Fold:
Amino acid sequence: MKRYIVPFIVCGMVALLVAERGAGETGKSVTVPSRIDRVMVYHDRALVTRRGEAQLKEPGVYDLVFRDLPSLIQDDSVRATADGKAPVKILDVEVRSYDLEHSPDEKTRQLRERLRTLLDESRSISDRLQVIQIEKDYLNEVKNSFLYGRQGGAEKDTAVRPYRLSIKEYEEMLDYLNRKHLENRANGFRLQAKSIEVGKKIAVVKGELEKLQGSESALYKKKLVKVTVETVRSVSLGMEISYINYRVNWNPGYDIRVLTAENATEFTGYGVVSHSSGEDWVNARVSYSTAQPARRGWIPDLVPLYATVSSKVVRGAVGKIMREKNISQQAMNRSILDNVLAESSEKPSDGEQALGEDGSMETQDKRLGSLVFDVPKRARIPGDGSPHRTAISRHRFPVKFEYLSIPKLSPYAYLQALGKNTLDTPILQGDLNIYMGSDFVGSSFTGNILPGEEFELMLGINENIRVRRTLEERHEKKGGFLSAGRKISYGFSIRVENYSGREIVMNLVDQIPVSETSEVEVRDVSFSDTPQKRLKNGIVKWQFPMKSGASKTIAFSFTVVAPENSEVAFFTTKLPPSQYLQNKDAQRRDEYEYQQQERIQKKAPALRQKMY
Structure:
């Protein structure tokens, strides 16, 4: 019986050793040198893919270690992939943090050494200023001792008899004190100026360090990724790891070159990226994505909606807000039915803003979807926190040149290049540099322009084209026997004079008021020239060619009819007029109008969808 027990125990121990060997540390640890191969840049992060190779000389289990990775990477985002034909199996992926005695980055080390030198210099200046103050106090004591007693007497010390000084001694002491005080004051001013200069340098160095890593502790931390693999034979293994890294952002940018002789514009699109993610992207394939990885990918559930009398509803905090802001029950009902409260509580993340009430989009247009733009060649983008441009595309669009004037708002004629986005991809909102041939015109920004949409590029004003709008007529008539009410007539004229030295196409835009109430009527609208366009909101547009030296006058008029005892009031708004006029929404209306005024005061986009 004992003959069988010993082999059984041996077999059990071997099985335990094999199981432990497959589940734990193997001892076959291989450090894998890696380089960044690909980067997908999102608006607030980047998906980084590193590639490395390892020589596995015999069958078994190995720990492949990728070291010197940034401390900002998201641990649960790490993925590992082996070359498809390699006879290996990935058993585990582990992420660890470790501390450093010194920062491994050469630029960081240089900046920290520079900061240490500046701080030492600042302390030295502070010490010297203290010495100057001590000397100043000493000189004051010398003065008192000299004036009120040669043997230590003071001004109020009656026990010491004042020593009678000669005029020569007074003059010598006065010269000495003046000279020393002037020297101290000059040295103090010089040191204070030096202290301010050193303080500015310290702030600059600290700012650069912050750009590199963001926090002091991150300078001395790194992460490693350990990929445990099993191979059945020796192999030269190619391995990729990918992870999400932060402190990254990008924005589109464009250079637009206007070629007047060819009636064309040349668009060069750029990705402008800045990052301080803790690593440099060297010779990497870079792509830019408009996707929002941080946005939730699930649709919310509807909560049951009920109706009852308002007296039965307990409002709590909501009721307090309604009272403080004078919000009516009707306004609250509309906000619930339109889901206004939910929309305001779920604000977009950074880099994305919601659709405005006037239909405008502040940043990313929801109609664009998720787009990816690939940089044609490999790029080097250091992680120094500074913006770096990489060219994405270059396209040419045919355009025609016209002038646009809205004399009610501005007395100038603006040169426009009108074209159409003939690409399959949109022109994204971004910064814009405009060139006329080889001459730089200025910087602005562009709105989103979808494929197939017409666009207008503003190229500045031409002061040789004069536009003047005049109120020619205003008179009022009271209703007679057959017609009640008040009638107020308005007449305007717009005169355009072309002194540009060439033939042009001129576009004029103005407006006729639109009544949104049955009590007021706008009628008897007449034009000296039929408008090319007349919209329901009252906007009218004329277009006509003008030869050099020519002038043209356009006149239009209208009559407003109102009840006898009422006064007509005009107002402008991008809100629905009925909503604007509701007193219960006065606060919201005023806030909206303030925001609109802020937008008007800001610089308008030079490239946008064609408006008129």
